[in-house]
Amino acid sequence: MTVPEALFTGDARPYGGGDPYADYRTTDFPFAHLAHLADLADRRLGAGVIAANDEFFAERENLLKPGAAEFDPERFGHKGKIMDGWETRRRRGSGAGSPHPTDADHDWALVRLGAPGVIRGIVVDTAHFRGNYPQAVSVEATSLPGSPSPEDLCGDGVKWTELVPRTAIGGHAANGFAVDVEQRFTHLRLNQHPDGGIARLRVYGEVAPDPAWLAALGTFDLVALENGGGVEDASDRFYSPATNTIQPGRSHKMDDGWETRRRRDKGNDWIHYRLVAQAEIRAVEIDTAYLKGNAAGWATLSVRDGETAEWTETLPRTRLQPDTNHRFALGAGVVATEVRLDIFPDGGVSRLRVFGGLTEGGAAGLAARHGELGGG
């Protein structure tokens, strides 16, 4: 693997008051290409930071908090400045004659991904860590079945694959790294060299579910992010991302769904979804929870079996109610690989659920892909 070029290093400017993000930096990295991917380290999917060797100044759990890191210049505790991130104490050498840490000294955190998947990009965000960020970071990944403990992950027999080699990073910045390893992973090890603080970790990729688990379920949500569904495209992402509609659970507030800007033409808004694999759809839920004066007025659902096939309307234009979960049984199963939700004329939907089971061909394709990615 080629070592990523360090696009900038060194401290950011000290905080001078006002907007703490005014001088926030981003690397010359194509962040936009990650927008349609799932954050595999999202807490909503079940991700967690299960262990760290040190979290003296700030807790490891902050790494996966949703939203941007916050900064309060007046907030101090009995250990010092309270930071919204993961921050370790300053490392020291072996003695007065060797006061500096060695090249091998580093701190680490173990991250359980919320859903196993193929990782396409990683963002190590050092927001507000200006003179106390790590000199460099590295990221490794592994795949273990079940729910391994930190001791299991640190065992001698575990194979770790390097995703991001040791690379210098910048402070108070979003440091992005492309990943080109075509394997399925369940856990990451984030290393900071030699010590310091990281505000957030984002792990963008494609969910790669366990076919055996889906087979055991039989009927499940075919478009859910956690099961391997995804958003291919959407007409509008003005207020919130379309991927919110396939997150786990019901929406808990208005911005936890998908809402479009107000249309001033005669068109309509839509989301194009990819199912986990070819499947037979038997029921659909369209939820407008917490969308009251801005819910979509009507909706249709169309399907197609293959990227070049024609779209077929399977749910005709139907009136939607605000803040309501709408359920539709489709009767005879509809075979498809993709679905499209059209709303009229604009507004919002909080969740879409597409229930059914894999076809024989869909199950075979998913199992083959699982094997290609190193799945057992």
Structure summarized in a few sentences:
The protein is 6% helix and 39% strand. With 376 residues, the protein is mainly beta.
Structural commentary:
The chain has helices at 150-153, 211-217, 360-372, and strands spanning 25-26, 38-39, 48-52, 76-77, 80-81, 86-87, 107-125, 136-142, 161-168, 173-178, 185-193, 197-198, 200-207, 220-221, 230-234, 258-259, 269-287, 298-304, 312-319, 325-344, 348-349, 351-358. Residues 1-6 have low confidence and may be disordered. Helices cover 6% and strands 39% of the residues. Strands 1, 2, 3, 7, 8, 9, 10, 11 and 13 form a nine-stranded mixed beta sheet that branches. Strands 14, 15, 17, 18, 19, 20 and 22 form a seven-stranded antiparallel beta sheet that branches. With 376 residues, it is mainly beta.
Mean pLDDT: 94
Q: Assign the structural class, choosing from mainly alpha, mainly beta, alpha/beta, alpha+beta, or little secondary structure.
A: mainly beta
Straight-line distance between termini: 25 Å
Report the major sheet. Answer: 9 strands, mixed
